[in-house]
């Protein structure tokens, strides 16, 4: 009986004091972050790999675009005083870089090179699994602070560094007769430049390994290049570029090899394979085999005694000590004026 009375009293007391109206809301707000963390942890994370070639090509295309704009700007001032624009070249480069930044990154649009390569900047710090993950390319763009710091680093930093280098070179800070303060500033500039180049080299190695952040500025700002559209094909055809590269390499190879070839030795090497030996030797016997003209000051190549112009034969003998006759491929050991006895010959030097 006593136990039943205690149970009845407890049930009546609980029914008489219901929970507060905001208790359910407070409990919901307290448990909501834990629930969101549990649901987000179960969402799949899609690994994405952005082509390194596309990122490098995008940077190169931006440089080419800036060079094209600079060329057009220089043509505008071509009629002005020569050398005037050269004094303000760093300002011109900074102005063009600012224009590209203002009408691309600042308004959440890709740069010309990034647009051609289907790339855009994404704030890697704000990447969270939100909702349904479809491609792994989702994510917000750069924040206002990131855009401003990007402008300060790319436009202002490069301009200040170029001006500081030109000023230090003009003032000759690196000379030994300068004050100790100027020399310390010069050594400090050299040290900073060396550290920056070393850090850039390390960043390139990390970029080639991971495919993220092609420059130090992007790595510091956590601004990563990702594809703007996952289904867009490459907008640039590399067929013309590949053909141009092949011809450029071929022309450079010819420019390297042609000075090493001796035209007279090549002619003498190919002469036995010529079809009209008799006609050429009979008809051109009185002409200089080098300039194919009638010798004004005829000289004979010894010992074969073929006629040459004095200047042609002297030039070839001075250039090549082992010069051979262009007609018979005989080594020329001396030269003699036509119609002069052998005693007055001039030995080849």
UniProtKB/TrEMBL annotation:
It comes from the Eukaryota. Residues 288-329 form the RING-type domain. It catalyses: [E2 ubiquitin-conjugating enzyme]-S-ubiquitinyl-L-cysteine + [acceptor protein]-L-cysteine = [E2 ubiquitin-conjugating enzyme]-L-cysteine + [acceptor protein]-S-ubiquitinyl-L-cysteine. It is an enzyme of class 2 (transferase). One of its GO terms (biological process) is protein import into peroxisome matrix. It is found in: Peroxisome membrane. PROSITE patterns: ZF_RING_1 (PS00518), ZF_RING_2 (PS50089). GO terms for molecular function: ubiquitin protein ligase activity; zinc ion binding. Pathway: Protein modification; protein ubiquitination. One of its GO terms (cellular component) is peroxisomal membrane. Pfam families: Pex2_Pex12 (PF04757), zf-C3HC4 (PF00097). InterPro entries: PEX2/10 (IPR025654), Pex_N (IPR006845), RING-HC_PEX2 (IPR045859), Znf_C3HC4_RING-type (IPR018957), Znf_RING (IPR001841), Znf_RING/FYVE/PHD (IPR013083), Znf_RING_CS (IPR017907). Its EC number is 2.3.2.36. Residues 1-20 are annotated as: Disordered. It is a multi-pass membrane protein. Keywords: Membrane, Metal-binding, Peroxisome, Protein transport, Transferase, Transmembrane, Transmembrane helix, Transport, Ubl conjugation pathway, Zinc, Zinc-finger. Belongs to the pex2/pex10/pex12 family. This is RING-type E3 ubiquitin transferase (cysteine targeting). It comes from Coffea arabica (Arabian coffee).
């Amino acid at each position: 009986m006593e136990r039943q009375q205690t149970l009845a009293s407890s049930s009546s007391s609980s029914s008489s004091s219901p929970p507060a109206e905001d208790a359910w809301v407070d409990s919901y707000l307290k448990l909501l972050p834990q629930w969101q963390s549990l649901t987000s942890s179960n969402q799949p994370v899609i690994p994405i790999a952005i082509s390194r070639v596309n990122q490098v090509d995008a940077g190169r295309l931006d440089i080419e675009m800036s060079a094209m704009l600079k060329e057009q700007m220089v043509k505008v001032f071509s009629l002005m005083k020569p050398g005037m624009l050269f004094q303000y070249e760093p300002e011109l480069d900074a102005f063009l870089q600012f224009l590209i930044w203002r009408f691309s990154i600042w308004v959440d649009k890709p740069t010309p090179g990034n647009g051609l390569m289907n790339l855009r900047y994404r704030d890697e710090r704000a990447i969270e699994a939100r909702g349904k993950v479809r491609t792994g390319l989702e994510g917000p763009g750069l924040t206002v602070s990131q855009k401003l710091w990007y402008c300060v680093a790319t436009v202002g930093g490069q301009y200040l560094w170029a001006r500081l280098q030109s000023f230090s070179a003009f003032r000759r800070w690196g000379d030994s007769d300068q004050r100790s303060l100027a020399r310390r500033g010069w050594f400090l500039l050299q040290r900073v430049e060396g550290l920056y180049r070393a850090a850039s080299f390390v960043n390139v190695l990390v970029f080639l390994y991971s495919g993220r952040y092609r420059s130090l500025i992007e790595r510091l700002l956590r601004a990563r290049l990702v594809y703007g559209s996952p289904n867009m094909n490459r907008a640039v055809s590399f067929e013309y570029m590949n053909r141009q590269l092949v011809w450029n390499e071929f022309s450079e190879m010819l420019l390297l090899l042609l000075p090493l070839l001796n035209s007279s030795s090549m002619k003498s090497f190919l002469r036995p394979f010529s079809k009209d030996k008799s006609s050429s030797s009979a008809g051109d016997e009185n002409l200089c085999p080098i300039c194919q003209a009638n010798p004004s000051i005829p000289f004979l190549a010894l010992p074969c005694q073929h006629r040459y112009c004095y200047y042609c034969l002297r030039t070839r003998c001075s250039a090549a000590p082992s010069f051979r006759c262009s007609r018979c491929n005989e080594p020329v050991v001396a030269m003699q004026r036509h119609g002069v006895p052998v005693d007055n010959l001039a030995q080849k030097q």
